[in-house]
Write a structure and sequence with these properties.
The structure holds two protein chains of two kinds. Chain A is globular and about 70 Å long. Chain A is built from 18 helices and ten strands. Chain A is an alpha/beta fold. In chain A, α13 packs parallel to α18. In chain A, α13 links the parallel β7 and β8. By secondary structure, chain B is α/β, with parallel strands linked by helices. In chain B, strands 7-6-5-8-9 form a five-stranded mixed sheet. Chain B has a four-stranded mixed sheet with strand order 3-2-1-4. Classes of the chains: A alpha/beta, B alpha/beta. At the A-B interface, α17, β10 and α18 of A face α9, β7 and α16 of B.
Chain lengths: 429, 476
Amino acid sequence: MSTEAQKEKSMILQKEMISGLFNDLSKAKETGKKVCYTFIPGNLSELIRTFDMLPVYPEINALQSAMRKKSAGYIKEAEKHAHSEDVCTYVKCDVGMMMKGNIGPTGEKIPEPDILLLSYTGCFTFLKWFETLKREYPNAVVIMVHTPYQENAKMTPEMTQYMVKQFYEEVIPKMEKVTGIKYDEAKLKRHLELSKEAEDWITKIFDTTKHRPSPIDAYFAGVYYIGPINIGFRGTQEAVDYYKELYSEIMERVRLGLGPITPEGEMKEEKYRLVVEGPPNWTSFREFWKIFYDMGAVIVASSYTKVGGVYDMGWRHDANRPLESLAEYCMNCYTNLNIPQRIDLLSKCIVDYQADGYVTNSIKSCNSFSAGQLGMMREIEDRLEVPVGFIESDLVDPRYFSYSNIKNRLESYFQMLEQRKIIKESTTV
Amino acid sequence: MAIMNKYYLGIDLGSTTSKAVIINEKDEIIGRGITNTRANYKVAADIAREEAIYDARFTLLSNIIKEDMEAKPEFKKYMFDIRTVFQYRQFKRRMDSLEKKLNQTASEFSFQNKEAIIGKLKSIIETIRPKIRHEFVNENLGSKNQFFRDIVSERYNLEVGKLGREFYEPLMLAFDKSITPVENEMVQFNFKELVFESMKTLEEKYKGLADQQEDGSKEDWYYAELNAVKNNYKNVELSLRQHIETVAGEDIHISKMVGTGYGRALLPFPEDCIKSEILCHAFGAHAIFPNTRTVLDIGGQDTKAIQVDSHGLVTSFHMNDRCAAGCGRYLGYIADEFGISLNELGPEAMSATKETTICSTCTVFAGAEVKELLHNGEERSNILAGLHKAIVQRAMSLIARSGGVKNEFTFTGGVARNQAVLKYVKQMVTDSYGELTMNIHTDSIFMGALGGAMFARRNINADLPKADQKTTKSEI
């Protein structure tokens, strides 16, 4: 009884948060709240909240549309308006949704943006995406922050200052102008304190996969867990409460020795522990997940759940250095790490969570993730002698998800893991 | 025999062909069977298995008369001939069935010239039957890897082409409607009966042979074997009659089996007897060439680059995704475009003076490109060479993605039989990875089925190579 009730509680909390946000968004015009469109990597959630704005995340809307089987129609709509077949499908899905009335995942209309805030420039597509949106919403104010890439695997004080300068000169003045609200650093600091608290919980949550069996799936369920912080609740008490609750539910599973919950109930046997690199496919999310849990594979860590913030290595938002901290946050997002840093991070996950294998889901239209993926895989294979697998799918375009191809490759991969496990066991006994 | 011999079966249900391999307790191949994969996967698997069992019986027979075969040319020749004639006897049964079906289909037609159609049908069959018989009996058609459908349709279409246009549509329709049900029929043969029938056919053949003059067009051994068999076939017959009971009576008891290939999930095997073709191909290739570290398999619908360890176990692999432009089907499509058979593609490409550049990211588009090139006066052989090269270029990209070629390299799959593909594989692997040992085996198409049979013998998961080596030793 207890686990079911607890499971529901965190889910209910999350549902309330999300529906509350979309409800607020649908009433933004009446309430006079300003709306800020921004992206998950390097999002300035706390700053947006400091100016009392409501955030809209186009990627989230796109993936929600895909899960609700609406993305195909939206993509078609965007292609009708000359968006090429090779463009990132998140973009096309979002543009298509906008063209069809901008009805969000809860069925309510999403308001037009007052601000288009681009605070992470590592993804070139983001620039083009907002260029497109600017044409559609000519009244929106565009704020573009240049985020230096961690080419040398570190964030230098100069890089931080470069970004802080942009916050002072570009971001804050424009936000003040649009909202009519004066920048209140004390308020920002309070949000940052709450962010740190939520980040501590998140780290603990994703660290529970150290247990055997792992109480959670850090990819397929992980994407739900990161929902609140990726949809604008980072820096709020609600997020802290949600993660606290979620953590206690997970620890209860650990206490009872239970494995992860899947759409078809609890996973009975944990046969393989995997680390996954790359975003999931959203159009066939359930089928994709099923291939894994049917084979007894649990994902103990994934790069995708770090897309909205990398906390594994100890980095946290810091209220004592508010804008510096925001600058570092932007520069420290997963796709802004250089390739060796990503390799180190994923290798650490493989070792810390005792993974049996490493799988890459490559999305052809996603440059941020795909560039370097093969090289990373080879390096990880060489370094840790861990069996690697490679599959290809797409974010939200159902035409690019070939169930039988993926199943065929994964089946082969799992059989390969099985063999290697037996050999390993027979040599270590 | 006091001890019943144990045999293991591997079935590789591919997108184009279905293969079966039977091995003995020493991992030696004793039977191979191959047929075209058809809509009914079960029938395809059953036919391949049945063929492998007949082949196994011939292997057993050859083992019994091994000494004679080594010492006497007539035995060697006779055993070679009887296998192809044996195939003809099987072919004939199916052909009888097709003839019946064709007539039945035509009789149900509502075309005005129905009677004339039936008449033409009769004459076509009368024309092609002896032709095919001749090719089997005298020209070893049985060893040319052609399947019932291919053999009949090629000759049938040729004859239809000679007739007036008014017959084209009904005759093609009759064939299309009849071939599939006949192909999906499971015909049971009695091995002994078929062997005796084959012996009779051979007797007629050898009797009818006029003394062939040595005109120097063939190697000496050819005439030596021919003359030997012509004069001594009665002795061989006598010997075979002595052993046929034993061989036909031998229980080819399949202790365990493993299914693999694209259609593996559709095989009526228990779940734990189904194994990925990637693992099977690698295991099979490694068994034949133990130093193999990289396996390239080009099949009908997929190309796989596989890295294996010293045990033949897969360490990583890469497969083509979403497009068949680097696979066997691509060749099949091109053959259709040119109106030539698949077997003719390689040799013609080998005769090219240069390779025309083909942008072959898509099988379907390549068809349009080919037409354009032909229109511009490009030689067919050069275009074919370019197409073969394009396939290999795609395979090379997969090899690179899977980690490259680090040591001995083995090429498997149906496409490995194509000489032109082989040529470019050798060329490009050497260019990219330097001089290294490259293996290709006449059984390359059977590697997946062999790997499956070997997994079956190892009881799948319970008994993998390491542990297995130990058991083999203790058995000795």
